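Posting for a labmate who doesn't have an account.
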Amino acid sequence: MQYLRLALIIGLVAVFSLGLALGLSLMIPGLGRPEPGYERIPEGVMFVHGDTSVPLGGLTRYEATGLVEDLAPSFTVLPQDAYLDRATRGVVPGLEGRGLDVAAVIEKALASERGGLVGPSYCPVPAAVTLSDFPEAPVYRGNPGKKAVAVILNVAWGDEYLDGLLTIAEKAGARLTVCPAGTWLDGDEERATWLAAASSRGHEIGNHGYYNRPMTYNAEQITREIERTSDLIEAACGSRPVIFAPPMGEFNQGTLTAAAALGCRTVIWSLDTVDWRREGVDVISRRVTSRVGPGDIILCHPTEQTGPAMEQFLRVIREKGLAVVTVSELLSPEVLAEEDGPPGGNAPEGADSAGG
C-alpha cells in the first residue's frame, strides 16, 4: 500500500510538471528552444564547393557563419562595368559580379537533414557603369564574360523558311531575336499571327524599321518609321520591342537618337553569316564556327540555306559550352543560371548548388 501511494504521488508530480511546462510554453513562445544564434546544424552536414567539403554539422549558427564568411572571398566575382569599344565606338554591356550569400547558406544548412550537402548561394553585385549610361550607343556584341551568344533573324521576306528556322533553333535549345520590317508585317494577319506565335514560344521580337532600307536620313522620319513598326509589333504580340536592328546595319546619329528616344537599343552584329548571298550551307556555317565566341551577335536571314547552316553552327556553339539566348538576355548584366555554380569545379552529386 505504501509503494502504491508513492507511485501515485510520483505520477501526480509528473503530470503537474508536464502541464506546467506546456502552459509556460504557450505563455512564453520559444521557451526551451536554443537562443537565436545558438541553433545547431544537424550532424554530418557539409558545405560543398568544388572538390572541397567543409563540415558544418554540430556547429551553432554563429560558429558556422564565421566559418563560411572565411570562405566567402574565394567565391567573390567582381562586376564588370560597361564601356565604349575603341574600334567600333559601340558599347559593350557590363556584367554583374556575385558574392557568397552567407546567410542563405547557413539557413540551408540549418534546414538540412543529417549528413546533407549544402552548396553555395549567391547574391548579385551590380556594376557601377551600365548600358543605361550610354543610351544612344550602338551594340555590336555582348560582354565576353557571359557564356552566351545571340542570333538575330532579320525578316523582310522568306516566309516559307521561318517555321523551319524556329524549329531548328528550339531543337538546339536556342531562342532567336526575330526582327521584322514594318512593310513585311503591315496589313498581313497571317504574318502577325506567326509573329505572335514566335513570341509565345520564347523568341524575342525586335524592330527592323518600317522599310527594308538604310535609315540614315533625318531623325524625325526615322522616329516615325521605328514607331510605326513598334505599333505593328505591339498589336501582334502585345508588347513593344526594345531592340532595334537597323536595315543593312547602317545608321547615323539621328538613327541612334530616335531609337533611344523610343526605348530601343540599336543593335548591329559581330558575326554576319551573309546568308542572303546563298553561297552554300558550309560557307555560311563556317562564317560562324570559325570565329564564334562568348558575347557574339550573329546575323541571319530566312533563306533555304540558312536552316541547314544554322543546324551546323548551333551544334558547334553548344559544343563550345555557349548558350544561345535572346539579344536582351545577352545584353542583360545578369549572369546565366548555369554559370552560377561554385568556382573550381562542379559540386559533388547531391549537393545543392543553386543560387539563392
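Reply:
Got it, the C-alpha cells are right above this. Residues 11-16, 18-22, 340-356 have pLDDT under 50 and may be disordered.
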